[in-house]
Amino acid sequence: MILCCGEALIDMIPTPVASGGTAYAPHTGGAIFNTAIALGRLGAEAGLLSGVSTDGFGEMLVASLQANNVGTDHLIRSDRLTTLAIVHLSDGKAVYSFYDENSAGSAITLADLPALPDGISALYFGGISLVAEPAASAYEALMAQAAGNCTIVLDPNIRPGFITDEPAYRARLARMIAMSDVVKVSDEDLDWITPEGGTLTDRARQMCEAGPQFVVVTKGEHGVTVVSRDAELDSPAVPAAVVDTVGAGDTFNAGLMVGLSRVGLLDKASLATATIEDLRPALTLGAQAAAVTVSRAGANPPWATELEGLG
């Protein structure tokens, strides 16, 4: 199983109405939730560990997980409110405003976390769940507990406007990067994490030297660059008619993990001996899946059948 650990929320998406104005329609979302959904649709055995409300929005989240083949045994239910993310689209690119204080997701503690069963091959972390306390510390502690036995994949998916204590967040992120096997960042994330400059490859390699086996940098239409301590690999993007980019990175992450699993590299020991070239099929699958997502509105990742026959 791939267990996704982090936020599940409601995206309020701007939607034109007949009167000519704009309404905001609720859609299930959150970086970690979106990746779990994409994993389920791509045929992976996936589960979500998250704080989820018992309110109406929380029930929407649970129903969506179940409809997309994602396990819900690790959800932590409470009567706290669901996090809301107001989505603003600018030239097809999503910008978010979050309403998260004391929410069902951000209020979980280490004591709330369920025991991890046998059979989990990888844990995936990231998103805004690494910002708000006490949940952020709980997820960090969970990573520390699991890192010795499970492959750890991290995508910070940084939202600068959501970060209230930047020094504490940067320190937590550095500790979690050091415990990770694979770190995926966008080029914008990399700029935020390493503002001191240098080439993309140099900065990604510095991150590798802190702990990860591989750092994967997505560059939108310019494809992906993967860096290890001693090698570099570029992989092209898949052309697509872009409607918006909501959920694109999350879908890429799911394709990457499914691709690694298909070639036996999601196992921690196998990944430790992998070459950078071994990642190429997984990068291709991630790009193919992301291309489908950006071609339609919202975080709507493809099902495995939609990718059949692609090279």
UniProtKB/TrEMBL annotation:
Full protein name: Carbohydrate kinase
Protein family according to the UniProt entry: Belongs to the carbohydrate kinase PfkB family.
Signal peptide: none
Entry keywords, A to Z: ATP-binding, Kinase, Nucleotide-binding, Transferase
Lineage per the UniProt record: Bacteria, Pseudomonadati, Pseudomonadota, Alphaproteobacteria, Rhodobacterales
InterPro entries: Carboh/pur_kinase_PfkB_CS, PfkB_Carbo_kinase, PfkB_dom, Ribokinase-like
Domain of life from the UniProt record: Bacteria
SUPFAM superfamilies referenced in this protein's UniProt entry, alphabetically: Ribokinase-like
Residues covered by the Carbohydrate kinase PfkB domain: 2-303
GO MF, one annotated term: ATP binding
Pfam families the UniProt entry points to: PfkB
